[in-house]
């Protein structure tokens, strides 16, 4: 009795290390309660209803915060006299301070309570996505350092808010990155509604920071695109706030421009991780849902995928460098757009073909589907489908503009082909990834034998089964899996080759628009057809989603590669 009592009073860090497969005493489970459902006869029913109510109210909180922030940002765009950028910064600073207070409270209070984290979601917080949070967070911090340095140099024409806002942003990024790295797998079992509201408030804040970053990026692209026209019209006039001709100022300015896209990606990645944590609040994972094996990334048995992918990356980097040199010059060369779109027209069909072949192999493989409830996988599917809408939407707008003007022109025909192939590639790749995410991971004969021994160990101890009989049974299972392995090995090798090739292709297609290659705006065709403001709004919506889609596809394809 004394031993049992002492075990219940151990702190939460002991609960984190507890095996999820061990049966839990009902006294350690904190069932949710809500005043609307206090008369429910069943504790489990009251818990389910309270969970739904908590999700509803926290979702309403996030919705109101997003609407308020969106109204501020929209007012700044359409009526920048009444609502200025400084007003938006003040609102977002207040939200970030509130999020900081909640994150600190979660780290020092909620997560340290007894039995606070009885379960951890093994599917949530994959190493690649947590690594993305750290990488993009580091670049975002450096971005804010450049912004502070630039504002300090031009302090005579900059407001104090332009120094305070990035300073608070640095603290917010540091605390959020630490929080997500250590607690992204938590299935918190205490203070359910307060935790949900804190997570939703942080999600809403990250979304508004992304919205503001996209808006500012749009204005920056507009200034760069019309720079030559401005210099011709206002030659001889100097700006009120101009960077002095010093090296440090130029470094801050160029560094800010270079690192700006990483801030938008950081906000989107954080939103996705926080959403999974929100879904996992109050979740109790059965020991049957715990995976018996954790596949690891090993570069074995693949040759053609890495080789072809590396060739695609090298050629893509060369095309990108030539594009950046010529397209940003005083007179963009028509041939540089032909070269850029030609690269895409060669690469996209290869990616689509690989995805189609991979989907066919999945169908032939007849591997069991993973039907267990998995919030992380559900979010991955939603993000893949939603983020793909950015590139697909922009492609359809380009198709309409080209068909309505002159599709027989060389550049126009290339843009038309690029748009059609991009739509096909997004759809085929999504089908391949989603199908792969729902497949059970392959188990080699050695791992299957190990699992068999582990699962039968307890029964063996209880029934004293003869060792010879057990060995013969395991040997039969191993022989069966060896036969299956020899029959399906070529399919698994093909899936690994295709997945690795698509990973490298998506990486180069992420690098090119992230670091400034935006031919959809710079070629001038769609801009002249739809008008400057309309096409900017379309690009503003589609381009960040397209960049996020490529990055998220890399994570999904790596998971398909590992489980193949």
Automatic annotation (TrEMBL):
What's the chief localization of this chain? membrane
GO cellular-component term (any): plasma membrane
Stretch list, region Disordered? 1-22
Transmembrane portions of the chain: 56-82, 88-108, 128-151, 163-181, 193-213, 257-278, 299-323, 343-361, 381-404, 410-434, 498-517, 529-549
Key words, A-Z = Cell membrane, Hydrogen ion transport, Ion channel, Ion transport, Membrane, Transmembrane, Transmembrane helix, Transport
What topology in the membrane does the UniProt record assign?
Answer: Multi-pass membrane protein
Annotated localization: Cell membrane
A Pfam family found in this protein is Otopetrin
Question: What spans are recorded as compositionally biased (Basic residues)?
Answer: 7-17
One GO MF term attached to the UniProt entry = proton channel activity
Q: Which InterPro entries match?
A: Otopetrin
Task: Name the family.
Answer: Belongs to the otopetrin family.
- The name under which this protein is listed is OTOP3 protein
Q: What is the scientific name of the source organism?
A: Thinocorus orbignyianus
Q: What is the lineage of its organism?
A: Eukaryota, Metazoa, Chordata, Craniata, Vertebrata
């Amino acid at each position: 009795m004394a031993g049992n009592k002492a075990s219940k009073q151990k702190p939460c860090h002991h609960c984190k290390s507890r095996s999820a497969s061990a049966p839990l005493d009902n006294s350690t489970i904190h069932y949710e309660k809500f005043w609307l459902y206090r008369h429910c006869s069943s504790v489990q029913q009251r818990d389910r209803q309270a969970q739904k109510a908590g999700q509803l109210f926290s979702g309403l909180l996030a919705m109101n915060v997003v609407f308020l922030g969106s109204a501020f940002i929209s007012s700044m765009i359409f009526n920048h006299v009444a609502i200025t950028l400084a007003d938006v910064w003040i609102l977002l600073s207040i939200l970030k301070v509130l999020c900081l207070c909640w994150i600190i409270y979660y780290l020092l209070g909620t997560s340290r309570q007894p039995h606070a984290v009885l379960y951890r979601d093994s599917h949530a917080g994959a190493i690649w996505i947590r690594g993305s949070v750290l990488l993009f967070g580091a670049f975002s911090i450096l971005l804010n350092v450049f912004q502070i340095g630039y504002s300090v140099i031009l302090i005579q024409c900059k407001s104090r808010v332009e120094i305070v806002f990035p300073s608070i942003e640095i603290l917010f990024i540091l605390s959020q990155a630490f929080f997500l790295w250590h607690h992204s797998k938590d299935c918190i079992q205490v203070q359910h509604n307060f935790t949900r509201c804190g997570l939703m408030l942080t999600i809403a804040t990250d979304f508004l920071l992304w919205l503001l970053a996209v808006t500012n990026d749009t204005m920056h692209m507009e200034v760069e695109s019309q720079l030559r026209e401005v210099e011709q019209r206002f030659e001889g006039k100097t700006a009120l706030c101009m960077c002095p001709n010093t090296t440090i100022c130029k470094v801050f300015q160029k560094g800010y421009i270079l690192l700006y896209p990483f801030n938008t990606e950081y906000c989107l990645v954080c939103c996705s991780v926080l959403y999974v944590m929100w879904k996992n609040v109050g979740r109790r994972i059965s020991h049957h849902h715990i995976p018996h094996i954790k596949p690891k990334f090993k570069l074995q048995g693949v040759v053609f995928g890495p080789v072809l992918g590396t060739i695609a990356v090298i050629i893509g980097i060369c095309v990108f460098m030539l594009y950046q040199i010529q397209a940003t010059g005083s007179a963009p060369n028509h041939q540089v757009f032909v070269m850029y779109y030609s690269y895409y027209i060669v690469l996209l069909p290869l990616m689509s073909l690989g995805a189609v072949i991979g989907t066919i192999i999945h169908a032939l493989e007849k591997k069991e589907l993973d039907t267990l409830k998995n919030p992380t996988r559900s979010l991955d599917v939603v993000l893949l489908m939603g983020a793909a809408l950015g590139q697909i939407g922009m492609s359809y707008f380009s198709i309409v503009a080209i068909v309505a003007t002159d599709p027989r022109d060389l550049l126009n025909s290339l843009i038309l082909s690029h748009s059609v192939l991009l739509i096909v590639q997004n759809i085929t790749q999504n089908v391949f990834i989603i199908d792969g995410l729902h497949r059970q991971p392959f188990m080699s004969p050695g791992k299957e034998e190990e699992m068999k021994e582990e699962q039968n160990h307890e029964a063996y101890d209880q029934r004293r089964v003869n060792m010879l009989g057990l060995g013969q049974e395991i040997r039969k299972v191993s022989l069966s899996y060896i036969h299956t392995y020899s029959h399906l090995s070529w399919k698994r090798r093909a899936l690994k080759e295709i997945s690795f090739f698509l990973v490298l292709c998506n990486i180069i297609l992420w690098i090119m628009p992230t670091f400034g290659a935006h031919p959809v705006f710079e070629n001038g065709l769609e801009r002249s057809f739809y008008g400057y403001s309309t096409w900017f709004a379309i690009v503003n919506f589609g381009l960040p989603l397209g960049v996020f889609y490529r990055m998220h596809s890399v994570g999904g394809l790596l998971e398909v590669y590992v489980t193949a």
